[in-house]
Structures are given as C-alpha cells and as structure tokens.
Design goal:
heterodimer, A: alpha/beta, Rossmann fold, six-stranded parallel beta sheet, 7 helices, 6 strands, B: alpha/beta, Glycerol-3-phosphate (1)-acyltransferase, seven-stranded mixed beta sheet, 7 strands, binds magnesium ion
Chain lengths: ~180, ~240
C-alpha cells in the first residue's frame, strides 16, 4: 500500500540538525540524498508535507520571515532533484509554552491530513526523534524512524512499546526506496 | 538450590506430562476442541509448576493489542516456554509448526488433533500454498495464527534471522499482525536442565495493519519485535 501523503520531519531528516537551531539559510545543509528521495516521492505522485517544530521562533532566535527564507532555500535545494513540498507546517511554540501543534502532539499532522484529505491509514510519518513517532502514533499513522540526525540515538535509547510498530532505515533515501518498492 | 528446584520441576513436569498424555488418549475420538482444552490444561499445570517449584512467574503486557477476529500473532522464539504461553493466552490458536513435529509420539499427534498448522519446509512453493490455504481456513473459523517468523528457536542476543515466509500469510490473508516480544530465554534452559526463578515478561505490541508491501512489512516486523525484545531482555537482566 503506497501512502497518499508522506509527513516529513525537517531537521535530521532532510537537513543536518544543529543544537543551536538553523537560524538563517546559510546554516541549512542538506543531508546526502535527501533531496533526491523527495524527488522520487514527487515523481511517484505522492504528496509530501513537512511538519516541523521550530521553537527557535518562540525563543526569539529568529522570526517567521527568516523561516520563510530558510524554507525558500530548502525548496530550491530540493527542486534541483525534482522534489516538491506540497505544504510546510511549522510550530513556533517554545517547549515551556507548548500547544497542541508542537510534536509530540499531533496537531500539525492532523492539519496536514485534513488539508490533503488523507486518512491516517494513507499517511506515513518519517522522523528522527521520539516525539515525531509519538505524534504519529497519536494521529494514528504509520511511522518510520531514520537513523540520520537524532535517529541513531533515538533507536539506541530504546523505542517505548506505545510507539511501535516502527520501521527503521539508515536515511530518507532508504526509507523512500522501501515505500516505493515492489 | 537452583539445581534442586530444577530437578524437582523436571520430575513433576515429566510426571504430569506422561499421565496426561496417556490418560487423554481417548480424546483422539472426541471433537477437536476437547484436545484444545486438554492442551491448555497441560499448559496451566506446566506454568503452575514453574511458578510454585522453580519460582518462575509470568507477566503479560499489552493484551489490549490483541484484536478480535482473524489475526497473525508473530512472536520471538527463544524457548519452548512461549509455545506453551501463547497457546494458553489465545482462545483457540493455530500455531505453525514444522512437520517433523508429527514424528514426536503423542506431542505431535495432539498438535495435529488440535488443528495446528504443520508445514513442510523442504518443498517451498507447494508448502507455501498449503500453509496459506490452512491459514485461510483458520481465519474463517475466527482462529488466530501464531507464527515464529525466525522459524526456529534462537538464543538470547543471537543475530535476528527473519524469514519472509510470514509475508505469504500476511499478504494473502490480509489480516493485522501482532508482534510479540518476551524474555523467556533468560529463564528457560536452552541446553541442560536448569530453570531460573524470576518473571518472564511477554508483551503484545500494537498490530501492524494489513496491506504493507513485503519489504516494509518485514522491516517493520523485525524492528518492532527486536526493539521490544532488547528492552525486555535488559529489563530481565537488571
Ligand atoms: Mg528532527
């Protein structure tokens, strides 16, 4: 069953994560093959939506206009491989004032699903952190952990039973190849 | 002390097994369900012995993940313990065994009488078709199918070795698959006769919905069972 909509975490899945946040387009470094993997999804006619926590905004480190520029850069890097994001959802909340959209809460995922009229069964989330998997579990959609970014650490720390079943791949490329395989 | 308890348990277990095996022979003439009940009783008596002689208890987690109706129950296989436990934790399971089991007097015959699924591992394609047909019959009767996707018992910590045979059932029967993890290998002897006291934890995990393709299904199944097994083994070793 090919998914209709793939929900992508951003940092650690598409681009390299940074402990001090990605605060401008210059700090955005794509992970190897991630743009090509998004290109394969686009070519296969599968919708993609980014669902990303951006607490850097809530912390006052950068503003929404800057985030728009960062995403402009992300779209350009991805478009070079024919990849397209059909929507980008972000949550600016800092952890100390987290609302229903900040992962591990499923708000953004639900918005994305309703935007594309996809049922949870038609969606897959790909993320690198436990809270991505938790948000997907709450939204009721399938979940894939990639070992890039925070992923290897997330796997090593042990996945709690409530987020299982989960499949794990080395990177977005391997995950997408499996989703599109056979 | 450990050895003494194990010898006592073994004596008890072989004793009750011999008595029940012989005294239930007339069940071969009775309906299948009677044999299912008899095997469950034997399982309860076995687990009772483990608890009261060896001091080996059981904790079951995640029962709420077992769906109603047809499903695959896919378990890690470390020892004989889970065969007994899964038979008793499921109302009327169909466990998949190697056909060689039928060569074991009584044990194999009761398994056949109780409607287990016996597979021939030598002739692949025909065996697969037969397994799927038998599986469909079980699902139609609302029985759940218990399968050990690694095919055979593996020691704790051994490199996982999942066979894609289970995908044949999952793909063709179009049912959810409940992954099961446990840590029986820490307590039940792999070789030799020393049972260890403690508590086996067996955990039913959230089901994998039907409809995944082969590779994604196999990856999800293996990763899910192994992640949970590692956690339970670590918990048992604490
Ligand atoms: Mg991330």
């Amino acid at each position: 069953m090919r998914p209709k909509l793939v929900l992508l975490d951003r940092d650690g899945v598409l681009n390299e994560d940074r402990d001090d946040f990605i605060k401008n387009p210059g700090e955005l470094i794509m992970l190897p093959d991630s743009a090509a993997a998004v290109g394969k999804l686009t070519a296969a006619g599968i919708k993609t939506a980014i669902v990303t926590n951006q607490s850097g905004i809530g912390r006052g480190l950068f503003d929404e206009a800057m985030l728009t520029r960062i995403h402009e850069q992300l779209r350009n890097e991805t478009a070079r491989f024919g990849g397209h994001y059909d929507a980008i959802f972000f949550c600016p909340d800092p952890p100390w004032a987290a609302g229903p959209n900040r992962k591990p809460e499923p708000g953004m995922l639900r918005q994305a699903m309703s935007r594309f009229r996809a049922t949870p069964g038609e969606c897959v989330l790909i993320g690198d952190s436990l809270r991505d998997l938790q948000a997907a579990q709450k939204a009721g959609c399938r979940r894939i952990l990639v070992r890039t970014g925070n992923g290897a650490k997330t796997q090593a720390q042990g996945l709690p039973p409530e987020v299982l079943p989960v499949s794990v791949y080395n990177d977005l490329g391997a995950a997408v190849d499996t989703l599109l395989g056979e | 002390m450990l050895l003494l308890r194990s010898i006592l348990f073994q004596t008890y277990w072989w004793g009750i097994s011999a008595v029940m095996t012989i005294s239930h022979v007339p069940l071969f003439l009775a309906p299948r369900k009677w044999t299912v009940h008899q095997i469950k009783m034997w399982g309860r008596v076995s687990l009772w012995g483990l608890r009261n002689i060896v001091g080996l208890d059981v904790e079951v987690r995640g029962r709420e993940h077992i769906p109603q109706g047809g499903a695959l129950i896919a378990s890690k296989h470390q020892t004989m313990w889970e065969t007994i436990a899964l038979f008793n934790l499921n109302p009327d399971p169909a466990i998949i065994f190697k056909r060689e089991l039928t060569y074991v007097p009584f044990y194999g015959w009761y398994a056949m009488k109780a409607g287990m699924i016996l597979i021939d591992r030598s002739t692949k394609a025909t065996a697969m078709r037969r397994m799927i047909r038998r599986g469909q019959e079980c699902i139609d009767q609302n029985r759940q199918i218990v399968v050990f996707p690694e095919g055979t018992r593996r020691p704790v910590g051994a490199e996982p070795d999942y066979k894609s045979g289970i995908y044949g059932l999952y793909g063709q029967l179009n049912v959810p698959c409940v992954p099961v993890a446990h840590n029986s290998g820490l307590y039940w002897p792999r070789r030799g006769y020393t049972w260890r006291p403690g508590k086996v934890i067996i955990e039913f995990l959230p089901p994998i919905a039907p409809g995944l393709k082969r590779q994604e299904f196999m990856d999800t199944l293996q990763n899910t069972i192994e992640a949970a097994t590692d956690r339970l083994v670590a918990e048992g070793q604490n």
